[in-house]
Amino acid sequence: MNSNKKISFDKNRKKAKTCPCGRNNRDGKFSPFKGYEDKGYCHSCGKSFMPEPKLIPPLTGTGLMRSMNSTNWYESQPQERGILSYLPFDIMEKSVMAHERCDLFPFLERLFTKPMAKRLCEDYFIGSNRHGNTVFWQVSKVGEIRQAKVMCYGLDGHRIEGKEWCAGKKILNNQFAILQKCFFGEYLLSLPENKSKPIAICEGEKTAVIASVYYPEFLWLATGGKSGINLTERETIKCLSGHDVILFPDLKVYDTWDEKAKLMALITGRKVVVSDILEMLADEPDKKEGLDIADYLLRVQDSSGLALTDHNYPVIWDCCL
């Protein structure tokens, strides 16, 4: 088994003769990951079989949680909370496999070409719901499907204000389910090739996806906006163990994120810095609008040099070819 494989779904469900649970797969109910025959999701028994290795131990709720590269940065406290619920793998699978139907895909395709857009959707678990809206799936470092955030986009790639929601409880058909959000893109932390990468964190999911093409030397995660995760909550940021972190706040929230960075550094014991590149580039209209790093990256004519070429591909590609 190749542990370096990225997680995506194989359309040939009958390639495996049996499910890891022991059931015969003649009817194709075991859906394997690409590159694996014994890892995937069984539609018969309802179990997920995730690739090894899992890079962090199971959560215990009490006792001492120690990271791989730091010995004492996180000490958990006894927690009084209900049992967390996770979303079903097969729902996410169908959504991600239908990513070309989501309203963000045409924009990504025009921006980066279809193969690149498909790769980004598969890497970041971006899918579609039945109405063609974009679904950003939140999957934890150990493969727990935490939430499904639905957003609507216009043809220009801009978010349609007021049309976003979290669909987790609806998917589970349980309004009392206890769900805990995680970073968008967090599962990428479990891949061996990302073990030593510094982490870049921004607010928006689309921003993280776009920035990952321009700056592949970072592993890009998103908090999910103002109503997303809490950057100073130990339970949330323990997945950043062993990584230096750089924050890319939207304009208007630089000072807030600067304070959060100081708390994050105390909690993690690692370097956490805040990029001030937008603060240096922005004029007053930009600050008033609250632009993010993606807005600057996508400006065709921009004095900062952080833009596409006249042929609409990233400038960074010219440096790498």
> N-to-C terminal Cα separation, in Å?
32 Å
Mean of residue pLDDT? 79
Discrete helix count: 11
Main-sheet strand order equals 4-5-6-7
Q: What is the string of helix and strand elements?
A: EEEHHHEEEEHEHEHEHEHHHH
Number of beta-strand segments: 11
Number of domains: 1
Largest sheet: 4 strands, antiparallel
Helix content: 25-40%
Please outline the helices and strands.
Blueprint lengths: L29 E3 L7 E3 L5 E2 L39 H9 L7 H8 L1 H11 L1 E3 L5 E6 L5 E9 L5 E8 L1 H5 L26 E4 L2 H10 L4 E4 L11 H4 L7 E3 L6 H15 L3 E3 L2 H5 L2 H6 L3 H5 L17 H6 L1
Parallel strand pairs: 8-9, 8-10, 10-11
Antiparallel strand pairs: 1-2, 2-3, 4-5, 5-6, 6-7
Helix pairs in contact: 2-3
Characterise this structure.
With 321 residues, the chain is α/β, with parallel strands linked by helices. It has one domain (89-320). It has 11 helices and 11 strands. The protein has helices at 89-97, 105-112, 114-124, 168-172, 205-214, 234-237, 254-268, 277-281, 284-289, 293-297, 315-320, and strands at residues 30-32, 40-42, 48-49, 126-128, 134-139, 145-153, 159-166, 199-202, 219-222, 245-247, 272-274. The strands form 3 sheets. A 4-stranded antiparallel sheet has the order 4-5-6-7. Strand 1 and strand 2 form a beta hairpin. Helix 2 crosses helix 3. The chain is globular and about 65 Å long.
Give the gist of this structure.
With 321 residues, the chain is of the alpha/beta class. The protein has helices spanning 89-97, 105-112, 114-124, 168-172, 205-214, 234-237, 254-268, 277-281, 284-289, 293-297, 315-320, and strands spanning 30-32, 40-42, 48-49, 126-128, 134-139, 145-153, 159-166, 199-202, 219-222, 245-247, 272-274. The longest helix has 15 residues, at 254-268.
